[in-house]
Structures are given as structure tokens and as C-alpha cells.
Amino acid sequence: MRRSDVTRGDGTWVGLALDVRRRRPGLGVYSAGPRLVVSQEARTVLLAEVGEHLQGVDFWRTDAYRSCVPPLRADAGRAMAGSPERWAHGFARYLADAPDSPLHEGRWLLSPESPLGRWRHPGTSHAEHWGSMLVEGHPDGYIDWHVHSIAWEVLPLRPMPEADDSRVKAYRRQVREGTLPPVLLWWVSGLDCHLVLDGHARLAAAIAESVEPPLLQLHRTVAPEDREGRIDEAVDSYADELARFAGLRAVHGPTVPDGAATAGPELVRRLHVLDTATQPTWAWPLPGGREEWHRLAREATAGRDWPRI
């Protein structure tokens, strides 16, 4: 895996681009029509069925998920406090080394910039906001696309610990010290939801202390083989816009601007988007299709009537 820093035009660090060559992930999404399985090395982690009217997803979460990140020591939190760049490089190494991470061939972005905190109303506390973003229910529940159609939601891959859990208490001290490591999220487009890959107790600690949790969000971005064509499109569009303004200047005189003031920033924006744009999550066809999905559902739910139609 090759890592490279992504910055804005002013040099501001945005995230870490990961160019991955791994063919298949250890943690992946498999589909049988509107039915999805999140599987980790042959273990069923999550079963989901998209509603007929596309308003949400019924899910069943098993207890099979294992984090691809080793336990983070408190001294590491103190050493890297306030440095999302260093944390991103550290988490990237864990994701690359773990055979059961979601990384697969293509380009990914690991970034502290997430839409999840943008929609908090100024009058709403961090505890209220982040608590409302958590998808409730275990083992089964519902991801409501209607309620959170703009802000999305956060689905833990294991039950969230209580505020008085010993791990949460330890992390609450780190919250107060300003040394809490980031929560690692994975954006899965088929669920229209962020899955918590690592940091369930850290997220619970941030909510308990009513602070905005530090985040690192992982998502697919534009693949290297697609970038060249998109760069050419952006440059051609820039040239076309300058030519349009040149034509206007030829007719109306030099009072017409040359167009660089508008076309230039748009070119910069389009090129930046190539490094950061969220691409749909890959889902592989589930071998056995619908019948296999129902078999996995019967096995995971011990024959319970789920999903309820």
C-alpha cells in the first residue's frame, strides 16, 4: 500500500490517500439484490435488507465483529494528541497489516473531515447530537433514511458500552485530558451509514463527556485508473471556459474579463475533488444469492422471524 498526504491549495492537510493493491478485503459487503451481508473472514457480521420503498434498512447485527485495530495505549494517545495526521498514518498501517480490514484494490481516503458533525444545531449539546446519530437496536434494528436523509447515521458493529463501563471511564479521563484517540468510521454507501470499525468505547466516552469525538473516516475515492480521464475533462472544461470568454472579449472589447477568475478556482475545486470525493462502496455478488442470504439469516437469528415483512 502506498500512502500520500492530501492537502488543499493553501497547504491545509485534508487526509491520507491510500493506494491499495489487495484484491479482496477481509471485511467486505456482499449483495443479493436488496439484501446485504457484511462478512469478516467468513464470519457474518451484519445482515441487512433495504426496504421496498427505499426509506431505510432492516439490519441484524451479530457478535462476530473483531476490530482490525489493536488496543490503543494511553501513552500513545498522549504522544499523538492533537495530531490527526499522525493518527491517520498509524491507523493506515493497522488497516494495511490486518487481513480482516475493509481495504481492497483502489484508492481510499482516511480523513478527519466528516459530515457527521456539521448538522449539529447550536442549541444541541454534543451528547444529544452524537447520541441521536447512533443507530439503536441489538441484535436487530432499523437504519432510517427518512429521518437522517441528510446527516446520515452511525452504526456500531458491536453494542455500545455504558458510560460506567471500565473502558469508557478510562477513555473519559483521556477526553478531559484532550488525548482521546480518534474513532475509526467506514462509510458504506449501500447502507447510507457509517460503521464503527474501532473506538466504540471512545465514542461512548466522548458522548458521556458531551464533546465532539475525534474521527477518522475511511471511504473509497476516485481510483488511479480513472483519475487521468477526469483530469483531462477538468482541464478541457477550463480551456473551453477561457475560449468562451475570449470570444466575448473579441465582440465586446477588453472590458469583458478573461475568465480566469472564475474558471481557475473551478479547476482547482474539480482537481481537489478527485482526491477527496466519496465513491460508492464495492459490494460483491453473494455466492448462492437470495437462498444463501436467507440461510445466513436463519443461522444468525436462530430461526427467528426476521426481517418482518
Q: The biggest beta sheet, please?
A: 7 strands, mixed
In percent, how helical is the residue content? 25-40%
Which consecutive residue ranges, at least 5 long each, have pLDDT under 50? none
Strand content: 15-25%
Mean pLDDT metric: 91
Give the structural class: alpha+beta
How many angstroms does the end-to-end distance come to?
A: 43 Å
How many DSSP helices?
8
Radius of gyration: 22 Å
Shape estimate: globular
Count every beta strand, where a strand is a DSSP E run of 2 or more residues: 13
Q: What's the order of the H and E elements?
A: EEEEEEHHEHEEHEEHEHHEH
As laid out across the biggest beta sheet, the strand order is 1-2-7-12-10-11-9
Explain how this protein is built:
The strands form two sheets. This protein has a seven-stranded mixed beta sheet, with helices on both faces. Helix content is 35%, strand content 24%. The chain is an alpha+beta fold and 309 residues long. Helix 4 packs across helix 5 (200-208) and helix 6 (224-252) packs antiparallel against helix 7. The longest helix is centred in the C-terminal third of the chain and has 29 residues, at 224-252. Strand 4 and strand 5 form a beta hairpin. It has eight helices and 13 strands. The two termini are 43 Å apart.
